[in-house]
Specification:
Length: 121
Amino acid sequence: MSSLIPLCNSNDLVNGGRAVPFDIVYAGQTCRAFAIRYQGQVHAYLNRCTHVAMEMDYQPDRFFDASGSWLMCATHGANYQPDTGACAGGPCRGGLVKIDLSEQGGVVRWHTAYNLKPLEF
């Protein structure tokens, strides 16, 4: 069963801007995740490149390339589609792990799942 965990205020996420980081337990391991806004919609992913399992941001909470069109892994240059997490080019091996979000009443919430849990779970 899924739970809704408050993550941030809606205005904390700007199209193509800084991400809001958060920690989760994914498949039994503590991991970083991030939420972004792209074309008005909120999206979240595990902060783990599919090429090599390392964090992707080139500066803290920065994932978009200079054009604001792609999420980019700073280490190897893999590019991902911001709305789906699908590989868009470079040395990716599949898409990013997507985390479901919802936005209502000025608050963004993430949805737990069988393999995505809050730290205190």
